[in-house]
Design goal:
CATH class: Alpha Beta
Protein name: Peptide methionine sulfoxide reductase MsrA
Enzyme class: oxidoreductase
Organism: Candidatus Rhodoblastus alkanivorans
Strand content: 15-25%
InterPro entries: Met_Sox_Rdtase_MsrA_dom (IPR002569), Met_Sox_Rdtase_MsrA_sf (IPR036509)
Radius of gyration: 16 Å
Order of helices and strands: HEHEHEHEEEHEEHH
Function: Has an important function as a repair enzyme for proteins that have been inactivated by oxidation. Catalyzes the reversible oxidation-reduction of methionine sulfoxide in proteins to methionine.
């Protein structure tokens, strides 16, 4: 397997990342006041919040999620590749397309977990040891209904001072999602002992189980091979 995260970088920046996040550990936050009506049929939303390994790993453990695929959103097809996106100048963000069953979990709960557990929404163009616009906090809604709920929730959380600083998450509609290379899929589940995962991402899984036990499932839903 091609490994693209540097072990040396992860170890060197781990202490600094932990210090930066010391004031914003995962914690419970209010549920959205505005949410969707329960409806039939699958629904998808694309979420970006740092390295897609951890975001994918979190949502693979959420009840009602039927698929979580790592990929890129915000740029064009020609640059939707890891080596190009890593430069930070393609417009892409490492993202995860979360598909869920609205009869088993709501968009509001997906967003609540996204803000509370999957990443720190107050960090601008960085998460933990990763820096650059490709690691920005962003929501790529499927439609205006999703965008409206996301905007309202950000306003609600800011007004409630749910975090120590304002939320910097952007809402970026009308962007195409491109699945990432196969070796990025299911990375957390397949590499639980990888140092980057141990330091940065396994604590998120533990936080999901602790903070939202009703939404946690022990066995993750895996992607398998994703065609490019």
């Amino acid at each position: 397997m091609k490994i693209v995260k540097s072990l040396i970088l992860s170890a060197a920046l781990a202490l600094g990342a932990a210090t930066a996040r010391a004031d914003e550990k995962p914690h419970t936050i209010p549920a959205p006041i505005q949410d969707e009506m329960i409806h039939q049929g699958p629904e998808s939303i694309v979420l970006a919040g740092g390295c897609f390994w951890g975001v994918q790993g979190v949502f693979q453990h959420v009840k009602g999620v039927t698929r979580a695929v790592s990929g890129y959103a915000g740029g064009v097809a020609a640059t939707a590749h890891y080596d190009l996106t890593s430069r930070g100048d393609t417009g892409h963000a490492e993202s995860v397309r979360v598909t869920f069953d609205p009869t088993k979990t709501s968009l509001g709960r997906i967003l609540q977990i996204y803000f509370a557990v999957a990443h720190d929404p107050t960090e601008l163009n960085r998460q933990g040891p990763d820096y650059g616009t490709q690691y920005r906090s962003a929501i790529f809604p499927s439609d205006e209904g999703q965008a409206s709920i996301a905007r309202a929730y950000i306003t609600q959380l800011d007004q409630a001072h749910a975090f120590h600083a304002p939320i910097v998450t952007t809402i970026e509609p009308g962007k195409t999602f491109y699945p990432a290379e196969a070796y990025h899929q299911d990375f957390l589940a397949l590499n639980p002992d990888y140092p980057y995962i141990v330091i940065n991402d396994l604590p998120k899984i533990a936080a999901l189980r602790r903070l939202y036990p009703g939404s946690y499932r022990d066995r993750p839903v895996l992607v398998g091979i994703v065609a490019r």
